[in-house]
Write a structure and sequence with these properties.
single chain, 114 residues, mainly beta, six-stranded mixed β-sheet, 4% helix
Length: 114
């Protein structure tokens, strides 16, 4: 059974930084493109970053230059470094496979507010 456990969210002021972590069960991590998604209140879940097993990254335009996705193969963990955070980044953040996500974890709340 695939397990995804996101952590690292919190309340941060505009311009601040957070680093999100996603611990996986391993099976999903080794063979899949992994992505970070987010869902803001009243909006659909969207993919913000993805990372291939070979290390190629892709970002949605709104986070380019501010977010960075990475992975630790030994720990089967995916990270999202978020810098220069804006209020519009406020959302629940999830990690999962892309383009065919498995069961979703609980996510981690990121709130950007002064």
């Amino acid at each position: 059974q695939v397990q995804l456990v996101e952590s690292g969210g919190g309340l941060v002021q505009p311009g601040g930084s957070l680093r999100l972590s996603c611990a996986t069960s391993g099976s999903i991590f080794r063979v899949n493109i992994m992505g970070w998604y987010r869902q803001a209140p009243g909006k659909q879940r969207e993919l913000v970053a993805r990372l291939t097993p070979g290390g190629t990254t892709t970002y949605t335009d709104s986070v380019k230059g501010r977010f960075s996705i990475s992975r630790d193969n030994a720990k089967s963990t995916v990270y999202l470094q978020m810098n220069s955070l804006k209020p519009e980044d406020t959302a629940v953040y999830y990690c999962n496979a892309w383009p065919n996500p498995r069961s979703w974890g609980q996510g981690t709340q990121v709130t950007v507010s002064s």
